[in-house]
Amino acid sequence: MNATRTLTFLWTPGSAIVSVLVVLVAAGFCFVAWQRSGYRRSFGMLEALRLTIVVLAALMFNQPEWVEEFRPNEKPSIAVLWDDSTSMETRDVVPAGQTGTTPITRKEAIKGLTEEPAWNRLHERMNVVIQPIASPQPGRGTDLHDPLAQAPEKFKNLLGIVLISDGDWNEGQPPVQAASRLRLKGIPVFTVPVGSPNRLPDIELLSLDAPTFGIAGKSVRIPFTVDSSLPREYTTTVVLKTSDGEEVSKEVRIAAMGRTSEWIAWKPKTIGDFTLSLDVPKHSDETLVDNNHMKAPISIREEKLKVLVVESYPRWEYRYLRNALSRDPGVEVSCLLFHPGLSKVGGGNKDYIKQFPGGLDELSKYDVVFLGDVGIDDGQLTPEQCRLLKGIVEHQASGLVFMPGLQGRQFSLLDTELGDLCPVLMDEAQPGGWGARTPGHFELTELGRRSLLTKLADTQDDNMEVWEDLPGFQWYAPVVRAKAGTEVLAVHKDMTNEHGRLPLLVTRTFGAGKVLFMGTDGAWRWRKGVEDKYHYRFWGQVVRWMAYQRNMAKGETMRLYYSPDQPQMRQTLALHANVMEKSGEPLTKGEVTARIVAPSGKAETVRFTSAGDEWGVFNSRFTAEEPGKHEVTLMCKQTNASLETSFFVQGVAAERIGRPARPEVLEEIARVTRGKVIEPSKLNDIVQSLANLPEPVPSVRRVQLWSHPVFAGVLVLLLGVFWVGRKVVGLI
C-alpha cells in the first residue's frame, strides 16, 4: 500500500486577507509593546508567544487538513460470479444464430464465460477471480444478495463485478439492496442474463407423498402432484415402479396450465423396505424431461393392530363388526359385552375379555377402541375409565370410534371427559335417535370423496356409484351439527335442520390421536348381495387410518410418532415419544434424546421434554433442512432403551428445473450500480467494458486540524502560559 501525505488549507480570498491583516496588526502591536519595555528579553519572549498564538489562530481560520492518500500496490480485481444452482440445468437456451437446433442448458450456454481463457485480455491490468454462487446446502434456493454484498470484503481492491445468472433468486434479501451499497462504493455490476423469460412447455412431477409405512396385503394410497405448463389438458398413464420390479399404472388427466393432484394405489405383497419411483411419460410438446421422475421410500410391515370393542347389547352392527375385525389377519380384536342379561361381563369365545382393562398399562396396548351403545350407568364404564380413554387418545395417539345405538347410553358419556372428544353435538331431547321404515342413505361430502376412509372402489367415479348403491339404514343418531374443527365425510341424504344436512360420518384429531363418529348402526347391511366386500374394507380402513400415526415406529418400551407424517423441507416436525419403564408403566420423568442424521451425513441431537404426567409423553421439535431419508435413533438414559427408525422429507425445493428466467432482476442490479446488461454471446463487449473502467479511486483519510481537540488543547495551553508569563513579568 503506497501512502501520500500532504497538508492542505481550505482557504478563500477573504479568509486569507483577513488572516494576513490580523497577523500584521498583531505583529505591530507586539513590537510596540516590546519597544516600550526597553527591549527587555522577558517582554520580548512574552510578545513572541502572543504573536505565535495569533498566527496559529489565523492558520486555523483557513481550515488546515492533514490528507493521507492510500493507493494499493496490487492490481485491481474483477469478480466473475456465475450461477451454479439447480435452475441453471434448465434446457431452454438456443445458441445465437442456430435457430431450430436442440436447446442447451443455461449452464452450457455460459460455460465459456466461466473459464480463465475468456478473460486473458484483462490479466495484464486486473486480477480476474471466477467463482460460482450456489447454495451450500442441498435443497436450498439461490441467494444473489449475499455474494454481491460480501464481494467488496472478499476481493481486494474490487473494481467491478460480472454477474452471470438466470436471475431466479429465492433465498435471502432482495439483491437490489446489495446493489445499492455497491453503488455507494463505486463498484459497477455487469450482468449477463441467461435463459428464457417464458416458461417452456413442460410437465413437472412436484411431489410423491408416500406414507411412512404400509401393511403387507393391504392397499397403500400414494398421492402425487403434477404441474403442467402445456396450453391444453391431456390424458396420460403414469407408472409406479417398486425396487423389487413390480409396476402399477394409472390413467390420469393432466390439467392445462396448472397443478393436478392424484393418487395411485399399490398393494404390497411382501414385507421389507422399498423404494417407489413414479414416472410421468414425456409429452410430444414437452421440452424439459428432466423433472418427470421422483422417488420415495416406504416400509412394508406385517403387524397385528390391537382393537378393543366395548358394547352393551350384541346388536347386528356389533356382531358383524366383531366378525370383520376377527377375520382381518392384521387385527387382534378384544370384545367386552356389558349385556344386562348376562350374569358376568364378557362373552363366549377367545375374542372376549372378562372386564375392562384394569389400568393404563393394559389399556395403552390398544391401538383403536370402539365404544358402542354403552355409558356410565348400570355398572358399565366408570368416570376413571373414561379419563383413561381420553388420555390414550390425546397422549398416546390411539383411535376412538363412537358408535351410538338405540338405547342412547352414550349420552351419559358426554358428561364425562369423553365429551370433549365427541366430534358432534347431540339432541338431548331425543336420546333414542330416529328410526324410519323408509331406509335412509349416506351422501359423501367433498372431503368424503377424497378421504381414504370412504374409498370403497378404486376410482372416484366408481366409489361414488358404490356409495349411492349401498343398502340404506333405518336408524340414525340424534345429531344436531358437527363441532368446529371436525371433518364431515358423509351426511344424511334427505334429512336437514337449521344447520344443514345431518352429519353421520365425522372425524377429528384430538391431541395426538383420532376420533370417528359413526351416526348409524346399519353398516352391516352393506353385506347384502356382496358379502364382506365393502363392510370389511371400510372397517379395515378405519382401523388402519386411526392406528397409522401411533405405529410409525415402536419398540418394546418406546414409541415415536411425528406430525405431519409427510413433512416438507424446512417444515417443523412435532416429535412425540411414549416411553415406558421396563415394568410396563409410563416413564414420568427422564432424559430422552433423538439423534437425527440427514442424507448429507449431518447429525443433530434433539432433546425431548417430559409432559410430567402419567402418560409417559415426551415432546420435541425438529426442522428438516434437507430432502430425503433421515435416520433417527431415539434413546432414553433411564431405561437404557433405544429405537431406530427413519422418516422421509419431501424435496420439492425452491430451486427447480424448468422455471422461467428473471432477466428483470439482473437489469435492475445493473441499472442501480451504473453497470451494463450484456448478452452471453457478446464476450468481447463484456471484456471491453471492464477494460474501460477507470483506476480505482484511492482511499483518502482526512484529519481536520482546525477542529481537532488536540489543537484546541494546545491553544488553551499557550494562552495559559501567556497569562502566567504576564503575571511573572509584573504586568498583572
Task: Describe the protein.
The chain is an alpha+beta fold and 732 residues long. It contains 14 helices and 38 strands. It is elongated. The model has no long low-confidence stretch (mean pLDDT 84).
Give keywords:
732 residues, Rossmann fold, 14 helices, elongated, 5-stranded mixed beta sheet, Immunoglobulin-like
The residue fraction in helices comes out at: 10-25%
- What is the CATH homologous superfamily assignment of the largest domain? Class I glutamine amidotransferase (GATase) domain
Globular, elongated, flat, extended or rod-shaped: what is the shape?
A: elongated
Strand segment tally? 38
**Helix-and-strand structural type:** alpha+beta
Largest sheet: 8 strands, mixed
**Content of β-strand:** 25-35%
Major sheet: arrangement of strands: 18-17-19-20-28-27-26-23
CATH-derived topology of the largest domain: Rossmann fold
Average pLDDT works out at 84
Gyration radius from CA atoms, angstroms:
41 Å
The CATH architecture of the largest domain: 3-Layer(aba) Sandwich
Total of helices: 14
Topology readout:
Elements: E1 2-9, H1 13-36, H2 41-61, E2 64-71, E3 77-83, E4 91-93, E5 104-105, H3 106-109, E6 127-133, H4 145-154, E7 158-165, H5 175-184, E8 189-193, E9 203-208, E10 213-215, E11 220-228, E12 234-242, E13 247-254, E14 258-266, E15 272-279, E16 293-301, E17 305-311, H6 316-326, E18 331-337, H7 360-363, E19 368-371, H8 383-396, E20 399-402, E21 424-426, E22 434-440, E23 442-444, H9 446-450, H10 460-469, E24 473-476, E25 479-482, E26 487-497, E27 500-510, E28 513-518, H11 533-547, E29 553-554, E30 558-563, E31 572-579, E32 592-597, E33 603-607, E34 609-610, E35 617-623, E36 628-636, E37 641-649, H12 663-673, H13 683-691, E38 699-704, H14 709-728
Helix pairs in contact: 1-2, 2-14, 4-5, 5-12
